[in-house]
Design brief:
Number of helices: 10
Structural class: alpha/beta
Number of domains: 2
CATH topology of the largest domain: Rossmann fold
Helix content: 40-55%
Strand content: 15-25%
CATH superfamily of the largest domain: NAD(P)-binding Rossmann-like Domain
Order of helices and strands: EHEHEHEHEHEEHEEEHEEHEEHH
Protein backbone atom coordinates (compact mmCIF):
# COMPACT_ATOMS: atom_id res chain seq x y z
CA UNK A 1 0.00 0.00 0.00
CA UNK A 2 1.18 3.52 -0.81
CA UNK A 3 0.14 5.96 1.91
CA UNK A 4 0.67 9.70 2.26
CA UNK A 5 0.46 11.35 5.68
CA UNK A 6 -0.16 15.03 6.33
CA UNK A 7 1.25 16.03 9.70
CA UNK A 8 3.70 13.13 9.61
CA UNK A 9 6.08 14.84 12.04
CA UNK A 10 3.43 15.19 14.74
CA UNK A 11 2.97 12.87 17.68
CA UNK A 12 0.54 10.40 16.10
CA UNK A 13 1.90 11.02 12.60
CA UNK A 14 5.31 9.57 13.38
CA UNK A 15 3.83 6.52 15.08
CA UNK A 16 1.48 5.99 12.14
CA UNK A 17 4.36 6.22 9.68
CA UNK A 18 6.38 3.70 11.71
CA UNK A 19 3.44 1.31 11.86
CA UNK A 20 2.84 1.55 8.11
CA UNK A 21 6.50 0.91 7.35
CA UNK A 22 6.51 -2.10 9.67
CA UNK A 23 3.50 -3.42 7.78
CA UNK A 24 5.42 -3.18 4.49
CA UNK A 25 3.71 -0.05 3.17
CA UNK A 26 5.37 2.78 1.27
CA UNK A 27 5.07 6.13 3.01
CA UNK A 28 5.29 9.75 1.87
CA UNK A 29 5.00 12.58 4.36
CA UNK A 30 4.16 16.27 4.51
CA UNK A 31 4.53 18.96 7.14
CA UNK A 32 4.72 22.72 7.04
CA UNK A 33 8.51 23.06 6.93
CA UNK A 34 9.66 19.90 5.16
CA UNK A 35 12.16 19.20 7.97
CA UNK A 36 12.23 16.52 10.66
CA UNK A 37 12.04 17.62 14.31
CA UNK A 38 14.09 16.38 17.25
CA UNK A 39 13.20 12.89 18.50
CA UNK A 40 12.03 11.75 15.07
CA UNK A 41 11.85 7.99 14.83
CA UNK A 42 15.00 6.85 12.99
CA UNK A 43 13.23 4.48 10.61
CA UNK A 44 10.63 7.07 9.67
CA UNK A 45 13.24 9.71 8.86
CA UNK A 46 15.25 7.21 6.82
CA UNK A 47 12.45 5.61 4.82
CA UNK A 48 9.65 8.18 4.45
CA UNK A 49 10.41 11.04 2.04
CA UNK A 50 9.27 14.36 3.52
CA UNK A 51 8.03 17.38 1.59
CA UNK A 52 6.81 20.82 2.69
CA UNK A 53 3.12 21.61 2.45
CA UNK A 54 1.49 24.47 4.32
CA UNK A 55 -2.15 23.49 3.92
CA UNK A 56 -3.26 27.05 4.78
CA UNK A 57 -1.52 28.52 1.72
CA UNK A 58 -3.30 27.64 -1.56
CA UNK A 59 -0.52 29.25 -3.61
CA UNK A 60 1.95 26.69 -2.23
CA UNK A 61 -0.18 23.62 -3.01
CA UNK A 62 1.68 23.08 -6.27
CA UNK A 63 4.81 22.26 -4.24
CA UNK A 64 2.99 19.26 -2.81
CA UNK A 65 1.10 18.23 -5.92
CA UNK A 66 4.00 16.93 -7.98
CA UNK A 67 5.53 14.59 -5.36
CA UNK A 68 2.01 13.41 -4.50
CA UNK A 69 1.13 12.77 -8.15
CA UNK A 70 4.38 10.90 -8.71
CA UNK A 71 3.89 8.81 -5.57
CA UNK A 72 0.27 8.00 -6.55
CA UNK A 73 -1.04 7.26 -3.04
CA UNK A 74 -3.81 4.78 -2.52
CA UNK A 75 -4.53 6.39 0.85
CA UNK A 76 -4.07 9.80 2.40
CA UNK A 77 -4.11 10.00 6.18
CA UNK A 78 -4.96 13.61 7.04
CA UNK A 79 -3.50 14.29 10.50
CA UNK A 80 -2.21 17.85 10.02
CA UNK A 81 -3.98 19.99 12.61
CA UNK A 82 -3.65 22.23 15.62
CA UNK A 83 -4.64 19.62 18.16
CA UNK A 84 -3.85 21.17 21.55
CA UNK A 85 -7.28 22.43 22.69
CA UNK A 86 -5.81 25.38 24.59
CA UNK A 87 -4.34 26.68 21.32
CA UNK A 88 -7.65 26.55 19.43
CA UNK A 89 -9.76 29.03 21.37
CA UNK A 90 -11.95 28.62 24.45
CA UNK A 91 -15.23 28.66 22.53
CA UNK A 92 -15.23 29.12 18.73
CA UNK A 93 -12.05 28.32 16.76
CA UNK A 94 -9.30 30.90 16.89
CA UNK A 95 -7.97 32.11 13.53
CA UNK A 96 -5.06 29.66 13.22
CA UNK A 97 -7.24 26.69 14.25
CA UNK A 98 -9.86 27.61 11.67
CA UNK A 99 -7.22 28.06 8.98
CA UNK A 100 -5.45 24.75 9.64
CA UNK A 101 -8.19 22.46 10.88
CA UNK A 102 -11.00 23.63 8.60
CA UNK A 103 -9.41 25.37 5.63
CA UNK A 104 -6.49 22.93 5.59
CA UNK A 105 -8.88 19.99 5.43
CA UNK A 106 -10.59 21.53 2.40
CA UNK A 107 -7.18 21.97 0.77
CA UNK A 108 -6.28 18.31 1.30
CA UNK A 109 -9.61 17.16 -0.14
CA UNK A 110 -9.14 19.34 -3.21
CA UNK A 111 -5.64 17.98 -3.70
CA UNK A 112 -6.80 14.38 -3.37
CA UNK A 113 -9.70 14.86 -5.79
CA UNK A 114 -7.37 16.50 -8.33
CA UNK A 115 -4.97 13.56 -8.55
CA UNK A 116 -5.14 11.34 -11.65
CA UNK A 117 -6.33 8.45 -9.46
CA UNK A 118 -8.02 9.97 -6.38
CA UNK A 119 -7.13 8.04 -3.23
CA UNK A 120 -9.22 7.17 -0.22
CA UNK A 121 -8.79 9.75 2.57
CA UNK A 122 -8.93 9.09 6.32
CA UNK A 123 -9.62 12.29 8.24
CA UNK A 124 -8.70 12.32 11.92
CA UNK A 125 -11.41 14.08 13.90
CA UNK A 126 -11.90 14.10 17.66
CA UNK A 127 -14.19 13.08 20.50
CA UNK A 128 -14.34 16.79 21.37
CA UNK A 129 -17.15 17.13 18.80
CA UNK A 130 -19.57 15.38 21.16
CA UNK A 131 -21.91 17.09 23.58
CA UNK A 132 -20.14 17.05 26.96
CA UNK A 133 -23.49 16.42 28.66
CA UNK A 134 -23.35 12.86 27.30
CA UNK A 135 -20.00 12.24 28.97
CA UNK A 136 -21.36 11.14 32.33
CA UNK A 137 -23.60 8.45 30.83
CA UNK A 138 -23.01 5.40 28.69
CA UNK A 139 -20.27 5.30 26.04
CA UNK A 140 -21.13 7.59 23.14
CA UNK A 141 -21.84 6.19 19.69
CA UNK A 142 -21.23 7.95 16.40
CA UNK A 143 -24.89 9.06 16.39
CA UNK A 144 -24.53 10.99 19.66
CA UNK A 145 -25.33 14.75 19.61
CA UNK A 146 -22.71 17.09 18.18
CA UNK A 147 -22.16 20.03 20.51
CA UNK A 148 -18.49 20.92 21.02
CA UNK A 149 -17.40 22.72 24.16
CA UNK A 150 -14.25 24.41 22.80
CA UNK A 151 -12.62 25.82 19.70
CA UNK A 152 -10.81 22.59 18.93
CA UNK A 153 -14.02 20.58 18.90
CA UNK A 154 -15.77 23.19 16.77
CA UNK A 155 -12.92 23.28 14.27
CA UNK A 156 -13.10 19.52 13.78
CA UNK A 157 -16.91 19.56 13.59
CA UNK A 158 -16.74 22.24 10.91
CA UNK A 159 -14.14 20.20 9.05
CA UNK A 160 -16.50 17.21 9.12
CA UNK A 161 -19.20 19.45 7.63
CA UNK A 162 -16.83 20.50 4.85
CA UNK A 163 -16.12 16.83 4.16
CA UNK A 164 -19.85 16.14 3.82
CA UNK A 165 -20.28 18.96 1.30
CA UNK A 166 -17.17 18.05 -0.65
CA UNK A 167 -17.85 14.34 -0.95
CA UNK A 168 -21.40 14.92 -2.18
CA UNK A 169 -20.05 17.06 -5.02
CA UNK A 170 -16.86 15.15 -5.86
CA UNK A 171 -17.53 11.51 -5.03
CA UNK A 172 -14.24 11.34 -3.13
CA UNK A 173 -14.16 8.51 -0.56
CA UNK A 174 -13.45 10.09 2.83
CA UNK A 175 -13.65 8.22 6.13
CA UNK A 176 -13.77 10.01 9.47
CA UNK A 177 -12.09 8.66 12.62
CA UNK A 178 -13.23 10.44 15.79
CA UNK A 179 -10.21 9.83 17.94
CA UNK A 180 -10.46 9.81 21.73
CA UNK A 181 -7.59 10.74 24.03
CA UNK A 182 -4.32 8.95 23.40
CA UNK A 183 -0.85 9.33 24.81
CA UNK A 184 2.60 7.76 24.97
CA UNK A 185 6.31 8.48 24.65
CA UNK A 186 7.31 11.67 22.80
CA UNK A 187 3.95 13.37 23.26
CA UNK A 188 4.22 17.11 23.87
CA UNK A 189 4.53 18.04 27.52
CA UNK A 190 1.43 20.25 27.32
CA UNK A 191 -0.64 17.07 27.45
CA UNK A 192 -1.63 15.31 30.66
CA UNK A 193 0.59 12.22 31.04
CA UNK A 194 3.82 13.68 29.62
CA UNK A 195 3.35 16.79 31.74
CA UNK A 196 3.18 14.62 34.85
CA UNK A 197 5.98 12.29 33.73
CA UNK A 198 8.29 15.20 33.01
CA UNK A 199 7.77 16.54 36.53
CA UNK A 200 8.44 13.15 38.12
CA UNK A 201 11.60 12.79 36.00
CA UNK A 202 13.02 16.06 37.28
CA UNK A 203 15.24 15.83 40.39
CA UNK A 204 14.21 17.23 43.75
CA UNK A 205 11.18 16.76 45.88
CA UNK A 206 8.95 19.51 44.52
CA UNK A 207 5.26 18.56 44.43
CA UNK A 208 3.99 17.31 41.09
CA UNK A 209 1.28 19.70 39.92
CA UNK A 210 -1.78 18.18 38.28
CA UNK A 211 -4.89 19.88 36.97
CA UNK A 212 -7.38 17.29 38.22
CA UNK A 213 -7.27 13.69 39.40
CA UNK A 214 -11.01 12.93 39.29
CA UNK A 215 -11.80 13.22 35.59
CA UNK A 216 -13.38 10.26 33.79
CA UNK A 217 -11.62 9.76 30.45
CA UNK A 218 -11.14 7.26 27.63
CA UNK A 219 -7.35 6.98 27.27
CA UNK A 220 -5.37 4.78 24.86
CA UNK A 221 -1.78 4.21 23.84
CA UNK A 222 -0.98 6.01 20.59
CA UNK A 223 0.49 2.82 19.14
CA UNK A 224 -2.88 1.12 19.41
CA UNK A 225 -4.65 4.14 17.92
CA UNK A 226 -2.52 4.24 14.77
CA UNK A 227 -3.11 0.51 14.25
CA UNK A 228 -6.82 1.30 14.21
CA UNK A 229 -6.25 4.06 11.62
CA UNK A 230 -4.57 1.66 9.21
CA UNK A 231 -7.23 -1.00 9.67
CA UNK A 232 -9.98 1.55 9.07
CA UNK A 233 -8.28 2.87 5.96
CA UNK A 234 -8.20 -0.67 4.58
CA UNK A 235 -11.53 -2.07 5.78
CA UNK A 236 -13.81 0.84 6.67
CA UNK A 237 -17.00 1.36 4.71
CA UNK A 238 -16.87 4.10 2.05
CA UNK A 239 -17.66 7.40 3.73
CA UNK A 240 -17.73 5.68 7.12
CA UNK A 241 -17.64 7.41 10.50
CA UNK A 242 -15.91 5.63 13.40
CA UNK A 243 -15.03 6.25 17.03
CA UNK A 244 -11.45 5.27 17.83
CA UNK A 245 -10.72 4.82 21.53
CA UNK A 246 -10.34 2.20 24.22
CA UNK A 247 -14.04 1.91 24.93
CA UNK A 248 -13.25 1.95 28.65
CA UNK A 249 -13.44 4.67 31.29
CA UNK A 250 -10.66 5.39 33.74
CA UNK A 251 -10.02 8.15 36.24
CA UNK A 252 -7.11 10.52 35.75
CA UNK A 253 -6.19 9.69 39.34
CA UNK A 254 -5.72 6.05 38.36
CA UNK A 255 -3.21 7.10 35.70
CA UNK A 256 -1.45 9.33 38.21
CA UNK A 257 -1.28 6.48 40.74
CA UNK A 258 0.32 4.18 38.13
CA UNK A 259 2.93 6.81 37.37
CA UNK A 260 3.59 7.55 41.04
CA UNK A 261 4.17 3.86 41.80
CA UNK A 262 6.74 3.64 39.01
CA UNK A 263 8.45 6.98 39.57
CA UNK A 264 8.34 7.96 43.25
CA UNK A 265 5.57 6.76 45.59
CA UNK A 266 6.50 9.43 48.16
CA UNK A 267 6.46 12.41 45.82
CA UNK A 268 3.76 14.88 46.93
CA UNK A 269 0.96 15.82 44.54
CA UNK A 270 -0.68 19.23 44.27
CA UNK A 271 -4.08 19.21 42.57
CA UNK A 272 -4.94 22.65 41.18
CA UNK A 273 -8.61 22.12 40.29
CA UNK A 274 -10.16 19.29 42.35
CA UNK A 275 -13.66 18.01 41.70
CA UNK A 276 -15.38 15.38 39.60
CA UNK A 277 -15.37 15.86 35.83
CA UNK A 278 -16.16 13.66 32.85
CA UNK A 279 -15.09 13.43 29.22
CA UNK A 280 -16.73 11.19 26.64
CA UNK A 281 -16.00 7.47 26.52
CA UNK A 282 -16.15 5.73 23.15
CA UNK A 283 -18.60 3.15 21.96
CA UNK A 284 -16.23 1.30 19.59
CA UNK A 285 -18.68 -1.32 18.37
CA UNK A 286 -18.64 0.02 14.81
CA UNK A 287 -14.82 0.06 14.71
CA UNK A 288 -14.56 -3.49 16.04
CA UNK A 289 -17.21 -4.79 13.64
CA UNK A 290 -15.42 -3.27 10.64
CA UNK A 291 -11.84 -4.20 11.54
CA UNK A 292 -11.68 -6.62 14.47
CA UNK A 293 -9.39 -4.11 16.23
CA UNK A 294 -8.75 -4.42 19.94
CA UNK A 295 -6.24 -2.50 22.09
CA UNK A 296 -3.06 -4.45 22.83
CA UNK A 297 -1.01 -2.12 25.02
CA UNK A 298 -2.09 -1.80 28.62
CA UNK A 299 -2.38 1.59 30.26
CA UNK A 300 0.27 0.49 32.76
CA UNK A 301 2.73 -0.20 29.92
CA UNK A 302 1.91 3.11 28.27
CA UNK A 303 2.58 4.98 31.53
CA UNK A 304 5.86 3.12 32.10
CA UNK A 305 7.10 3.77 28.55
CA UNK A 306 6.20 7.44 28.78
CA UNK A 307 8.02 7.88 32.08
CA UNK A 308 11.09 6.08 30.68
CA UNK A 309 11.14 8.51 27.74
CA UNK A 310 11.09 11.52 30.07
CA UNK A 311 13.76 10.03 32.31
CA UNK A 312 16.06 9.72 29.29
CA UNK A 313 15.09 13.18 28.07
CA UNK A 314 15.95 14.78 31.41
CA UNK A 315 19.25 12.85 31.64
CA UNK A 316 20.22 14.04 28.15
CA UNK A 317 19.28 17.62 28.96
CA UNK A 318 21.42 17.61 32.12
CA UNK A 319 24.41 16.15 30.29
CA UNK A 320 24.23 18.93 27.72
CA UNK A 321 24.17 21.69 30.34
Amino acid sequence: MRAAITGITGFAGQYLAEHLLQAGDQVLGFNRSGTWPEHTLARVEAEAPLFPWDVTQPALAKLAYEPLRTFAPELIFHLAAISVPEECGPHLPAGPAAAVNVGGTAAVLEMAAGLPRPPRVLFISTSHVYDPLTAAGDPVSESAPIKPKNGYGWSKSLAETVIGWFTRDSGLDVLIARSFQHTGPRQHEQMMLPQWAQQFAQPGGRPVEVFNRSTRIDLSDVRDIVRAYRLLALAGEPGGLYNVGSGRACQTGEVLAMLQRIADPRRPIRERHPGARADAVADIGRLVAATGWQPRISLEQCVADTFEFWQKHEATRKSEC
